[in-house]
Amino acid sequence: MASELRIRVNEEMRTVTSAPDTPLLYVLSDELQLHGPRFGCGLAQCGACSVLVNGVEVRSCVTPVSAVAGKSVTTLEGLPAWYAMQKKLAHAPALHPVQQAIIDEQAIHCGFCFNGMIIKAAELLSKNARPTEAQIRSAMNGHLCRCGSYPRVLSAIQRASEMMAGRAEKHTTEVAR
Amino acid sequence: MSNVTAAAQLPRRDFLKAGGALVVGFSLGDVLAAQGPATVAARGMVAGPPDPKQIDTWLAVHADNTATVYIGYAEFGQGATTALLQVAAEELDLDMSQVSSVGLDTNVTPNQGGTYSSASIHRGSPQIRTAAAEARLALLQLASKELDAPVERLVVSKGVVTVAGGTEKSVTYGALVGDKPFNVSFTGKAPVKDPSQYKVAGTKAPRKDIPAKASGTHTYLQHVRLPGMLHGRVVRPRGQGAYGDGAKVLSLDESSIRDIPGARVVRRGDFVGVVAEREWDAVRAAQQLKVTWDAKPTLPGSDRLYEVMRAEKTNDKVLLERGDTAGAFNGAAHVASQTCLGPYQSHACFAPNGALADVKADSALIACSTQDCYTLRGTLARMLGLPAEKVRVQYYESSGTYGHSSHDDAAQAAALMSQLAGKPVRLQFMRWDEHGWDNYGPAHIGEARAAADASGKIVAYQYDGWQHNWCAVETSAQLALGIPASLWRGSMAQQVSPLTCGGQYEIANLRLVNHEISGLGYLKGAWLRSPLDLSFAFASEQAIDQLAYLVGMDPYEFRQRNMTDARWRGVLDAAAQAAQWKPRRAASSVSKSKVAQGRGIGLGTHLASYGGAVAEIEVNKETGQVAVKHLYGAIDAGFVVNPGIVENQISGQLVQTASRMLLEEVTFSNTNVTSLDWKSYPILRFEQSPKVTPVVVQRLDQRSTGAGEEVMAAAAVAIANAFFDATGVRMKQFPFTPARVRAALASA
Q: Can you tell me the distance from the alpha carbon of A128 to that of B608, in angstroms, rounded to the nearest whole number?
């Protein structure tokens, strides 16, 4: 094998052998067999391939794998654990609140864009726990959906924001005790 | 590759639990077996379709008191599978946690025909319902012996059979047949429940597929892998040329990819692809390979599209004629006419299509996202030179397709590449392949005329529609085998619709004329969600709206006055009530300010069901920007099995319609399509999304019909009528781009 790179994905160090200029997406989906990030355009136009790099949403289809060396990559699969770390929870929940809210709202049609929708919404709520409707629309504007799920995604993000507020309060109380 | 080896050593079921249905170290057939119970694996050995006259074809009851329902319709992300499982659970007296389905597979699932025309519930639910009822009857006959009581006295709850008012004895379905075949003929005569008794059907059961899609464990086609496979990409001109021309290779320089050692060219005729062990090598090689194509300047170009279309020869056919239309127009007090220029639009699948093929000397396995596994099996068999029963086609979900996008072309391409490479090949179209080589929804020219008497009664109506037909040959077969382009005929959806074009109203004198444009069409054409209906409604329901205006009436009241059909009236009223419609004449309060508000109403449908919609929009008269603020959509699809799913379908249709009316248009030069990505073919974004209010008109006493595309025509023209209300100007062409809007306002 030619090159070897060590990258941190969902808090695990992984050795990958793809050439350094390979877009991160192909490393995640082919070498690491993750289902979250997926190919939509290869042009950073749609958001299907989104992952978090050090907590910031990036398009893995145009990010060379070498660019994430020394950084922490979180995919849809790692989102509950990432959330638990952020919120300093003892245990990772089964689902990130955004994922749960997506189910509660039955927001999905085909679901292919929801990797990016959920990643971006999680990023938004990590920076702004109570976004306005306009702030949600603006943050999500780079994520396309062909099925027209935007109205229910909007509702789901609002619901997740409320769920997280509830969880955060409970957590604060526990710490105070 | 070390992690792959480790994964392959895990026990199969554990591995599948750990990573979904990733295929490592065993075949697709094994994966299917691992997904389902033992009976599925046994079925998978024999080429289908299984005998539809046997209950075992449709259902299996397992020892754990659950049931597998073998559904012949594909899940395209619209929730039909959950609804069909509700139908089965209802007749079997099981709850939703006890029923599941398996993926479509020509060795496993029945042939219920293709998944199009919103057919899953319309045609599929009666079949699933009667099969489940027949299975229930067979189970009760077994239980009757076991419990020593007549069938009539047996009651079932969650698959547990007891005797009414009797002893505490009970027996479960699982204990009665547990994974053994029924061996019972499907007579279709077992009694089905009266809808008034429904407990599961008719409820908003949550969709079965959503949790895995939200958590990231769902297996899409794009996740399926085979050991030893290569990654493939097609190499084609950027953007298709004229359908009849295909694409001709003038020269190909294999040395141009010499610096990518893992990649090689596969070619048959004018079909060119590259394969490589690593996906990135295939991507780079496809971009880098030097091919000179014979670019023929035979397209009209999108700027001259309608001008050229109008000059073409046509095959004219009067589809419907009653009364004396010409005479009625002559004597009428008010006459309105309206043009529609509707563009080629793309399916623009969010996930570019792909397929995985393993073609051997004597057999082939193809995993793909086709709408019709069995028809595709025949096509692939002929292409590969194999008997149909040696070809196995499996369906995996990709993104929503909303019609005949390039999924079959992708399946053909993967099969060709695997045959040429002698290895399994996973083909993935790139974004420009998908946008540029789609089978587009054809362009349409419509001329609607309608007349009313002085009292506001519609007395005459005529619709003339011009469009090309659909293509019958996919690009891969055309290029590889030199199969000449030809047309696909035979669907009602290819010609002027008697439902959307005046069929909503009582009109004594009516004439519908279809003008099929001769020739193969400029671009490849096929069905796109609610085929042609947006265009039909755009002309027809603007003409009706204009008549209301000329008569001096509110457009909702004018429509009410001219209709008697309770179901059309039902969706019209439902949409108007949801929008809290207040009567006034359209364009009676046109704002002088820069941004004008308008509201519009419309009716339309696809091949069955009924759709009504109201739109509220804003028009910026300086910039020409149109914003759709709120859409209200009502569907009457007879008995709605899952109103929650249909509400979501209505919401999606409303948003997609706003996208198609404001933004979507395939552009092309004289040689090729030029809208090749999301910048050159934009769709509606989050910030532009309207609020939506979906309304399901539930009809317990009516047969279920489709609900996946039936409110788009109504919503499309509601937007157009709202534009008139806001500005006093009728748009003749969509999409409503800022330049087009500014031009229309300036020339008014």
A: 46
pLDDT at B29 over 70: no
* Nearest-CA distance A75 → chain B (Å): 9
Residue of A104, A145, A163 to mutate, interface with B, max B Cβ within 10 Å: A145
Helix (H) or strand (E) run with residue B439 in it = none
Average pLDDT over chain B reads 93
pLDDT score of A170: 44
Q: Residue A96 and residue A106: Cα distance in Å, rounded?
A: 15
- Residue B16 in contact with partner chain A when CB distance is under 8 A: no
- For residue A130, the domain's CATH number is 1.10.150.120
- ipTM of model: 0.94
The pairing of strands B626-636 and B691-696 is parallel
Residues A19, A85 within the same domain: no
CB contact under 8 A, A38 and B220: yes
Beta-carbon separation of B7 and A33 below 8 A = yes
Residue span(s) of chain B under CATH 3.30.365.10 come to: 36-218, 222-295+350-436, 303-345+440-747
Chosen domain end from A45, A75, A105: A75
Q: Do A147 and B280 touch (CB under 8 A)?
A: no
- B474 secondary structure, DSSP code: -
CA–CA separation, B650 and B530 (whole Å): 13
B280 has a chain A CB within 8 A of its CB: yes
pLDDT for B2: 29
Give pLDDT tens digits for A53-85: 999 999 999 999 999 999 999 999 999 999 999
Task: Assess contact for B327 and B509: CB atoms under 8 A.
Answer: yes
Q: A69 and A29, same structural domain?
A: yes
Q: Given an 8 Å threshold on Cβ–Cβ distance, is A23 in contact with B280?
A: yes
CATH number, domain of A22, equals 3.10.20.30
Residues A104 and A119 grouped into a single domain? yes
Please tell me which of the candidates A40, A45, A102 has its beta carbon nearest to residue B351.
A40
A:B CB pairs within 8 Å: 186
| B652 Cα to chain A: minimum distance (Å) | 4
Q: Give yes or no: residues A101 and A167 share one domain.
A: yes
Q: Which domain holds residue A17?
A: 5-75
Q: Give the pLDDT of residue B493.
A: 85
Contacts of A115 in chain B (CB under 8 A): 216
Q: Which residue of A has its CA nearest to B430?
A: A41
| d(CA A164, nearest CA chain B) in Å | 17
pLDDT average, residue stretch B509-530: 96
Number of domains in chain A: 2
Same domain, A82 and A155: yes
pTM: 0.94
**Shortest distance, CA A10 to any CA of chain B (angstroms):** 14
Tokens 């080429």 found at: B47
Q: B222-295+350-436 architecture in CATH?
A: 2-Layer Sandwich (3.30)
Cross-chain residue pair B656–A26, CB shorter than 8 Å: no
Contact B504, B612 (CB under 8 A): no
Report the candidate in B11, B68, B16, B65 with the shortest Cα–Cα distance to residue B39. B68
A86 and A153 part of one domain: yes
Least confident piece of the model among A38-47, A51-60, B118-127, B659-668: B118-127
Q: What is the mean pLDDT of residues A107-117?
A: 98
Start-to-end CA distance of chain A, whole Å, equals 55
Report CB contact under 8 Å: A35, B20: yes
CA distances from B387 to A157, B25, B274, B382, B435 (A): 52, 27, 27, 8, 33
CB contact under 8 A, B652 and A30: no
> Which residues from A are below 8 Å from B429, CB to CB?
none
Fold held by B303-345+440-747: Aldehyde Oxidoreductase; domain 4 (3.30.365)
Q: Report residue B396: phi and psi, to 5°.
A: -125, 145
Residues A98 and A62 in one domain: no
Nearest by CB to residue A30, choosing from B215, B216, B279, is B279
Confidence at residue B253, expressed as pLDDT on a 0 to 100 scale? 98
State yes or no: pLDDT of B25 exceeds 60: no
Statement to judge: residues A133 and A146 lie in one domain: yes
What residues form DSSP beta bridges with A25? none
Architecture of the domain made up of B36-218: 2-Layer Sandwich (3.30)
